[in-house]
Every structure is written in structure tokens, then in C-alpha cells.
Amino acid sequence: MQKPLGKSFYNPSDRTTPATSSGTTAGATAVTGECVFHGILIQTDGSNDVTFNTYDNTTASGTRILTGDLVVAGNTNKEFVNPPVSLHCSTGIHVTCTCAGTFSWQVFYDDAD
Known about the structure:
By secondary structure, the chain is mainly β. The protein has strands spanning 3-4, 23-24, 28-32, 35-44, 50-55, 70-72, 78-81, 87-89, 92-99, 103-111. Strands 1, 2, 4, 7, 8 and 10 form a 6-stranded antiparallel β-sheet that branches. It has a 4-stranded antiparallel β-sheet with strand order 3-9-5-6, with no helix packed on it.
């Protein structure tokens, strides 16, 4: 289980170091190594739902960062999904996604201090 850091929401302007991110249209490892997960932005093609999972790992196994299979409705176009508090990840952040159409994702995180 990830260790909450006590922040109730993520505001990009609050960070002391720049958040880095990855964008892709397939599942992949976004971060390798210890980090702090703030959330993920999923952008859809406007019609097809995207189902995704996030793992504290460099593969699609182990501890899930966000609970269960999460779905972003295709007609929302984009949605930022985040935990109630920023979470410490000890191994990295791996994202898996499925969608009948096109999509992209971007992970928001900071390096662990």
C-alpha cells in the first residue's frame, strides 16, 4: 500500500520541483524508481471509453496505485484522475490502457525526496 503524503489535492503551481510526465497511446512504464504520484490525465477520441490501471511497478503487476479498473467515458474527451492525497511509489509508475479508438495519457509526478 502506498504511503499518503498528506496533501488533499494536487495543484501544479504548488510543486517545488517541476513535475515530469509521459504521453503515449499504449500501456507503458512512465516512471522508473521512487517517486510521488499526483494523478493521470486521460484524453479520449471523443467517442470511445478508455479503461486503465496504474501500478507501483515497472510492469503491469503488483500494487495498484488507483483502485480497480478505471474507466474514462469517451464523450468526456479528457479527465484528470487523482488519489485523495499524493502517493509515494517505491518502484515506479506503470500504466495499462485499453480502448477501441485512440487515446493518450499523461502521468503527473515528482521525484521522491
